[in-house]
Amino acid sequence: MEIINYKPDVREKTLEYGIGYPTDEELIMLILGSGNKNMPIETMSHKIADILDSSNDDNVVENLLRLKGVGNSKALAVAAALELGKRRYIHLGAHISTPRDLIPFVRNYAINQKEYFLTITLNGGHNIIQIHVVSVGTINRTLIHPREVFVDAIKENASAVIFCHNHPSGNTQPSNDDIATTKNLLAASEIIGITVLDHIIVDCESYFSFVENHLLFGNDEDND
Q: For 131-159, b where at least 16 C-beta lie within 10 A, e where not — what string?
């Protein structure tokens, strides 16, 4: 029977100060939640942190299982947390030179049954700063306001942004609302001074790039 014996203030302080507050060992404590009768959670977390420092992706579970008191469930919990973090933040710093370069980092939104509107912020070298979820639901001019779309780009001192949203229907062709919303955001971007590089629509198997299809971006005829 496992004994819950982590420091009681770790969870409370994390809730108060944010997930960036705990040390690596304290994060492991939060993941595991408990030690066992032979090893308190503080000691176990310290030993696990040492193992992680000397492990690679392909042997982390194997190395964790060598630690007495760490069974399959704890080893997999730690490995799963590492993999989830890697998947969620693998996009950071990635260079985007074509619309296709962005697809691997937003493909996970394509499987959702609701529409997710994203703003991808980029620096002057067109490397990704962050991917932000602006709204969840039907994309239209009423729900997508420039204030919400550009607020993170301004905070992050981004030089450019890419808009992206998914079409659960499986048809990546832009709707009239998609086009109208993009026009509004382009107009706002000129005032704000942050370049809009593209608007990309994704589904599970394909994507539509406004730039590649000469829609609104750099095509004066489309903007008339």
A: bbebbeeebeeebbbbeebbebbeeeebb
Quote the CA–CA distance of 129 and 133 in Å, as a whole number.
Answer: 14
**Could you state, in order of their start, the residue ranges of all structural domains in the chain?**
8-89, 99-209
pTM, entire model:
0.71
* CATH class, range 99-209: alpha beta
CA atoms 60, 66, 69, 72: torsion sign: positive
Q: State in Å, rounded, how far the first CA of the chain is from the last one.
A: 71
List of long-range contacts for 21-25, beta carbons under 8 Å, 24+ apart: 24/49, 24/52, 25/49
pLDDT tens by residue, 12-70: 888 988 988 889 999 999 999 888 888 888 999 999 999 998 888 889 999 999 998 89
The amino acid present at 17, given as its one-letter code, is Y
- How do strand 195-202 and strand 160-166 relate by DSSP bridges? parallel
Which has the closest alpha carbon to 178: 207, 205, 141?
141
Count of CA atoms in the C-beta half-sphere (13 A) of 152: 18
Give CA 175 to chain center in angstroms.
26
Residue 60 near residue 90, CB atoms below 8 Å: no
Q: Kindly give the interhelix angle for 176-192 and 146-155, rounded to the nearest 10 degrees.
A: 40
